[in-house]
Amino acid sequence: SWIPISRLFPNRSNNRGAGKPSSAESTDVNHRPTPHYNNALSESLHLQSTTILISDTISNTFFGSNAVATPTTAFHETLLMIKIWALQRGLLRGHDSFTTSTIALILVYLYRTKTIGKRMGSVQAFTTFMKFWSEADWLGEDAATTS
Questions:
Q1: For the region Disordered, what residue ranges are annotated (predicted)?
Q2: H helices within the chain, ranges in order?
Q3: In terms of Cα–Cα distance, which of 136, 76, 85, 135 is closest to 107?
Q4: Per residue of the chain (147 residues), what is the pLDDT tens digit?
């Protein structure tokens, strides 16, 4: 990782103002820890690792281990269809909604568990995704009732 772990400690302030504090000002007041910087770093790391995971899955599934993924695979076409479906239902916009990365990670899960096969077309993969989406116990209610 390109960010030292010590920078992510909650008591660490990595934000610096434009001006240097004078000796009369307390450095505690100007350099209090903020969650915004740490959150921004976490999002950057998450985006980087997610991109690597998705690229590796596409390369290994469709082209073998040393190939570069192209945006014409069934994975990309399926992702595009799911994005359109989610946009039509308002699931990609607004607070607490899905992102393209979230949907891509669900697709990666389905490819890695071989629920979606590499020979499936984009429509078949979309149908499998919808089946998984509808049958998954997202709230964990089934586990609570069987216990």
A1: 1-35
A2: 27-30, 35-58, 74-88, 100-112, 122-135, 141-146
A3: 76
A4: 566 777 767 676 665 555 555 554 445 455 666 667 667 777 777 777 788 888 887 777 766 655 555 556 788 899 999 999 999 998 887 777 888 888 998 999 999 899 998 889 999 999 999 999 999 887 888 766 665
| 58 contact partners, CB below 8 Å, separation of at least 6 | 69, 73, 75, 76
Rg over alpha carbons for the chain, rounded to the nearest Å, is 21
Long-range contacts of 84-88 (CB under 8 A, 24+ apart): 85/126
**What does the block give as tokens for 65?**
């281990």
For residues 81 and 139, give the distance between their C-alpha atoms in angstroms, rounded to a whole number.
25
Report how far residue 4's alpha carbon sits from residue 59's, in angstroms, rounded to the nearest whole number.
29
Residue 83 sits at φ, ψ, to 5 deg, of -60, -45
106 in Cβ contact with 129 (< 8 Å): yes
Domain ranges of the chain: 1-67, 71-138
Prediction pTM value: 0.62
Token pair recorded at residue 50: 């997610």
